[in-house]
Design brief:
This protein folds into 2 domains: about 90 residues; about 140 residues, no CATH class. The protein contains 11 helices and 8 strands. The protein has a two-stranded antiparallel ribbon. The chain has a two-stranded antiparallel sheet with strand order 3-4. α2 crosses α3 and α4 runs antiparallel to α7. The radius of gyration is 36 Å and the shape is elongated.
Length: about 300
């Protein structure tokens, strides 16, 4: 046929022009409205799935199985899987294929779950560090974020996550108490004039005292980010040591009562030990250079006391 002096062949994909839909005209005006299609529904509860519930009950039932000449009690689920594995070991191709498929599906399920958990904590770390950086750029104190991003260890090779610090407010209070006790033990070491010193030639001969040992013991319980002693904290401790002794004693007595430590008035220097008496050579090497060690071995001016009686 022709239209407007030009040939127009009617065929597949070329309907007659007079029967075409006009722009804006629906091809099915009486059909289903947009958005009225089948919608996804949430998984049905177990009460509406009686077959699944029956299978679960049956799978959890205990049965007695003869295995390697001995009778063992196990769930039906374990017995069926054992029979399937035995058939696969005997060369059953269908059993081998079924068992491999089950193992692959379980591997994929575990991987998906581990990847989901890993992704959650990776996003937590990234978002937390972004918030801390934002606060620092505006000269504001960093927000309190639990767990702290530095306490979340991500192992990308195995998709594992380890948290080495507080994860909630209750644990944050406990860790703060431990750190307060550790700092107090360090100051008590100075107060009692423990003969602690660093021997750079023979590291195992470096000396350590009673309160400094307790300081280390408490520091070991803290995540690495909480072990460092700030310049302000060290300056405050030095100021108390250089002030009046009675005032320093009052402070230490109050702190000991607050954290639950016994307070002993200063009488004489307490006993000290060499690191070689307490640690192996490898442990001595690992200990030297840590924030704890650098806090213990201060220059003499930081451990002295010119307090007036």
């Amino acid at each position: 046929m022709s239209s407007g002096g030009k040939d127009y062949e009617v065929g597949y994909g070329k309907p007659p022009k007079q029967s075409r839909f006009k722009p804006g005209q629906s091809g099915n005006p009486a059909g289903r409205k947009a958005g009225s299609g089948k919608k996804r529904t949430s998984p049905a509860p177990d009460v509406l799935l009686p077959t699944r519930e029956a299978l679960t009950r049956r799978a959890d039932r205990l049965v007695t199985v003869l295995e390697d000449g001995e009778r063992h009690q196990m769930t039906t689920r374990e017995a069926v899987l054992g029979a399937l594995a035995l058939a696969a070991l005997k060369g059953g191709v269908l059993a081998q294929r079924t068992l491999i498929q089950l193992m692959q599906e379980e591997d994929e399920r575990r991987y998906a779950k581990r990847d989901e958990i890993f992704t959650y904590w990776r996003n937590h770390v990234m978002q937390a560090r972004a918030k801390i950086q934002m606060a620092q750029s505006h000269n504001r104190p960093p927000p309190t974020i639990l767990p702290h991003p530095d306490d979340v260890l991500l192992e990308y090779a195995t998709l594992t996550v380890s948290i080495i610090g507080p994860v909630n407010e209750e644990e944050a209070i406990q860790y703060a108490h431990i750190r307060r006790t550790a700092l107090l033990c360090l100051e008590l070491s100075r107060f009692h004039r423990e003969d602690v010193h660093f021997d750079p030639v023979n590291l195992e001969h470096s000396r350590i005292g009673f309160w400094s040992i307790h300081h280390i013991d408490q520091m070991r319980l803290l995540p690495p980010r909480m072990r460092a002693i700030s310049k302000e904290e060290d300056a405050q401790s030095l100021a108390r040591a250089m002030g009046r002794r009675t005032k320093w004693e009052a402070y230490l007595r109050a702190e000991c009562e607050a954290v639950g430590l016994p307070y002993f008035p200063h009488k004489r220097a307490w006993r000290t030990w060499e690191l070689g008496e307490l640690l192996s050579p490898a442990e001595v090497q690992a200990f030297i250079g840590t924030p704890t060690a650098s806090a213990l071995w201060r220059p003499p001016r930081c451990t002295g006391n010119r307090a007036r009686p």
